[in-house]
Amino acid sequence: MVDAGRIRRGKPAPETFTNAADYLKVPYASCIGVEDAAAGVEAIKRAGMFAVGIGSAQTLRQADYLVADTEQLSAEHILAAYSRWIDKA
Predict the structure, then answer these.
(1) pLDDT class of 10 with cuts at 50, 70, 90
(2) 8 with 17: CB under 8 angstroms?
């Protein structure tokens, strides 16, 4: 969890996501961010992370993996998409 009071620049700046990764000592490219807003997906991508979008493809076009709602979230499918994303890098 990231303390919003410690973040100087909000989304779409990547600081929220990089702060969490830095705290956990995880490389950004090893992170998967989940967001339901365009600014959040943009922040994840600006951090160099894999972005899971929840919502419309029109709004969240930068997402690497997209579902319409949270009921469609599947760790297995997200990890498979992440593996393909890493292979392209």
Answers:
(1) confident
(2) no
pLDDT band at 42 (very low <50, low <70, confident <90, very high): very high
List CB contacts of 2: < 8 A, sequence separation 6 or more.
16, 19, 20, 23
pLDDT at 6 over 90: no
CA distances from 81 to 12, 30, 52, 67, 77 (A): 23, 13, 10, 12, 6
d(CA 89, CA 84): 9
Helical ranges in the chain per DSSP H: 15-24, 38-46, 75-88
pTM summary value: 0.93
The contacts of residue 58 (CB under 8 Å, 6+ apart) are none
Dist CA 25 CA 2 (whole Å)? 14
